[in-house]
Amino acid sequence: MNTLSDSLLFLVVALPFLGAVLAPLSIILLDRWGTIAIALFPAAALAILFQQSAQVQDRVAILFGFDWIPSFGVRFSFRLDGLSFGFAFLILFIGALVVLYSGGYMPKGARRGRFLLFIMLFMGAMLGLVLADDLVTLFVFWELTSIASFLLIGFDHEREAARRGAIQALVITGGGGLALLAGLVLIRESTGLSSMTQLIDAPDALRVGTSYVPILLLVLTGAFTKSAQMPLHVWLPNAMEAPTPVSAYLHSATMVKAGIYLLMRTFPMLGGTDLWSTILPVFGGITLVVGATLALRQSDIKLMLAYTTVASLGLLVMLIGIGTPLAIEAAVLYLFAHSLAKACLFMVAGSIDHGAGTRDIRALGGLAGKMPVTFVCALLGAAAMGGLPPLFGFLAKEEVYAATATADPIGFVTTAAALVGNALMFAVALQVAIRPFVGPLPSGLRRAHETHVLIWIGPLVLGIIGLLAAIFSVTTHQFISNPMSPPDPSGALAVDIALGFHWGPALILSIATVVLGAVLFWRAARARATIAGWLTRIGWGPDRGFDQFMRGLVQVSYKVTIALQPGLLDVYMRVTLAVIVGTVWVTMVWTNSLPSWPGMPHLFFYEWAVIGIIVIGVLVVVLAASRLTAVVSLGIQGLAVALLFMLLGAPDLSFTQFMVEVLSVSILALVMTRLRLMPADKRPWRDMGAEAALSVAGGLGLALFLLAIVQRPFDTAVTDFYERYSYTIAHGRNIVNVILVDFRGVDTMGEIAVVLTTGAAILALVRIRAAKPDARHSRKRRRRAGELQA
């Protein structure tokens, strides 16, 4: 690629963030026209993206980026191929409509500007995620989506429910992000590959490695938390506390699709194994059925749609888990159809709430005459969600049943799950599209009205696109479906399904879905009551479990803080030393790095004498009767070490050691004389046993650690460097001096500053005089003297 193309593709990623920066100012200056101006940013990015569609259709990956942290091999790099192109199209297209929708839905003023800032940040984060090539870049944008969603879900932060929903989403998806980070690090460490392109070019690198199982579990944890798989789904319904434009965007093209994208992206590297083909269909099937059942239980339109999103995500995970080419194609078609339908229906829910003042399905009715455009949008969205012809959802549902209906037990179970889940979701879609608009108009809705054009234009466009995408399915497959699907080995187009009569198991199952969904819609009130009774008998659920987890986390954190940070210096010292000692011992034992017992070295008599002085100094410290004597005796070991350096021919090092030791002992002695401490430690030996054991373990552990280091082969690379360049570069023959003055000049200057500061502190301690008697005590003494004189 040339530089101009690179710049344009970088602009695709940068435009949403640029729009986020300009959003508040544009709303202040231009009001609703400012909203339209901000919507031009994703529209421009989409236009640039489509300039690359020819290469994407030819399955030519476009790579662009630059070195970010070269020393660690990290690049800020991106990959545009069929999969990322399809997701980026949905993000930018639906994002532009959501921005326009926000201009009519959100109130005027600073709140709208702040809201658009967060939405555009969300858009940029999700766009960067699906385009990211480098693993570190992927994780950065992954976490940025969690932060942006936290800001959006908690946008109405004055309400406790909004704050709780935001925190819940951040905790669950943030925890999954940490698991994903661990998985990405493990991928890099086990394979040496650091980008999606490298992993795609070596698809078996992960499956054949010994780290496959932990990598798979960590990646699935990240994907399942983001895409709300049972029992980690609870954050998604509670995210409905966000304004409706957030719900429309989050459920259709952004955060919940991040996990689906990750599973599709890693399928060539992690899929095709028994573990993959077991975990994903099980979790996906359960999420599909339970999510659709809970959707039918709700009466708030947004909550009904939220739980159908959970169900749809479960269906997508189940299809990716099945992993056949037909199943992946079905997942691609369903992903596209669900994104259009769900964005449309959420915007319809917001329009109903905005025009009628309520979202409760039981309080709505007769709005078709008051809100005709919204009614049309609702019908188009519900037909797409229910998979009715001639909408694109019909093609997706046909392909889903074609992928699951296989003549084996697994195919029977997955088909049954798909049939039940789709029927329940169709019943919910019918409720959203029909209940609010037909029947008598309640007296409380006499003032209901059609909403602003910016509110209904988005769902209308999405509904029409869902219709046109099916009618012109060849074009849709050319730009979206085929590039996102696995290539066909024969070279033919992988996806060629079109509107028409396709008699077979898929059509029979589609008819059964419609019939069962219509029956459930007819008996929706009884079904809602029955499901509510089941949930009441069950009682506990993951949402309550999250609250219990958070309360337990706070309580445990409080107790740990009280235990480790009670405000006592001796506790801090014990904890710090215990961590150090434990780290040393665990590391050596775990890695089998304990040193071998050294042979007895040949020492001269004066060297033995120095060792004897060190031992005597240790005994004096331990047996000293007062603290001051023990502190002063500490200097014996340091002075003996300085003497040993001198005997071994290092007078400069010996002098440094001598000065440091004298300085340390002087400071400690002066501090001891100025503090109000007991002259001696009067505790009985049984109370000092823990400290004595910790001290012995620390000394022995550090001694073994140093001994292990000494027994390792000596690497002379640094020594050779200084010998070679000390004279030629620094023009000094004393290598130690050259290191201190030239190679480590800044570090040495810092050490000198520390010494000067310490000297100043010593001088301050020396000049402290005895404090003057307390004035109150002086008055008492004078009064006492007066009494004696009297």
Feature tags:
single chain; 790 residues; mainly alpha; 32 helices
Gap from first CA to last CA? 107 Å
Share in β-strands: under 5%
Number of strands: 2
Overall geometry: elongated
Could you give the order of strands across the largest sheet? 1-2
Q: Rounded to an integer, what's the Rg over CA atoms?
A: 36 Å
Please give a quick description of this structure:
By secondary structure, the chain is mostly helical. The chain has 32 helices and two strands. InterPro entries: CPA3_Na-H_Antiporter_A, MrpA_C/MbhD, MrpA_C/MbhE, ND/Mrp_TM, Nuo/plastoQ_OxRdtase_6_NuoJ, Proton_antipo_N.
Describe the structure.
- With 790 residues, the protein is mainly α.
- The chain has a domain at 325-522.
- Helices cover 74% and strands 2% of the residues.
- It has 32 helices and 2 strands.
- It has helices at 3-30, 32-50, 53-57, 82-105, 110-131, 135-153, 160-191, 196-201, 212-226, 235-238, 244-252, 255-270, 274-297, 301-322, 325-356, 372-386, 392-404, 409-434, 453-471, 473-484, 505-522, 524-538, 542-564, 569-590, 605-623, 627-647, 651-674, 689-711, 717-725, 735-743, 745-767, 775-789; strands spanning 62-69, 74-80.
- The chain has a two-stranded antiparallel sheet with strand order 1-2.
- Strand 1 (62-69) and strand 2 form a beta hairpin.
- Helix 9 (212-226) runs antiparallel to helix 12 (255-270) and helix 17 packs across helix 21 (505-522).
- The longest helix has 32 residues, at 160-191.
- It starts with a helix and ends with a helix.
- The mean pLDDT is 87.
